[in-house]
Design a protein that fits this description.
Radius of gyration: 19 Å
Strand order of the largest sheet: 1-2
Number of domains: 1
Structural class: mainly alpha
Order of helices and strands: EEHHHHHH
CATH class: Alpha Beta
Shape: extended
CATH architecture: Alpha-Beta Complex
Distance between the termini: 41 Å
Strand content: under 5%
Helix content: 40-55%
Number of helices: 6
């Protein structure tokens, strides 16, 4: 699939570092704003929605060409706010914020232990 304007394939776009950098900065800002609102008690721990209504919302999907920050904001808006001061931590605790950065690196690098055994050692 080619983007006629720039003649960039979908695969090239998916691995474009500058697009990733722009999106990552935008998403970190969205997440930090959400956490600040949550921790300052400006939003609820959770807005209950009946399961059928919640299913209908997600079943609609994101067919429109929405900005990635808008998509993530919708996810945050419909999530349980574990970092809220009134969340009691029953069964699931709020993760330390720094651990999210470790998850980011792990997700991007995707270096499972099986990868090591697949790489043939190079002798110099």
């Amino acid at each position: 699939m080619n983007d006629n304007k720039t003649n960039v394939t979908a695969l090239q776009k998916a691995f474009n570092v500058e697009d990733f950098r722009k999106n990552a900065h935008e998403i970190v800002d969205v997440l930090c704003n959400h956490l600040q609102q949550t921790q300052s008690n400006n939003i609820k721990v959770f807005d209950y929605v009946k399961p059928d209504e919640e299913y209908q919302f997600w079943a609609q999907g994101f067919e429109q060409q929405e900005n990635i920050a808008t998509v993530f904001q919708k996810i945050l808006d419909r999530s349980i706010n574990l970092h809220h001061p009134h969340y009691i931590g029953h069964q699931v605790s709020a993760p330390a914020l720094i651990s999210g950065l470790g998850s980011l690196i792990s997700s991007i690098m995707s270096n499972g232990s099986a990868v090591y055994e697949l790489v043939k050692p190079i002798r110099l």
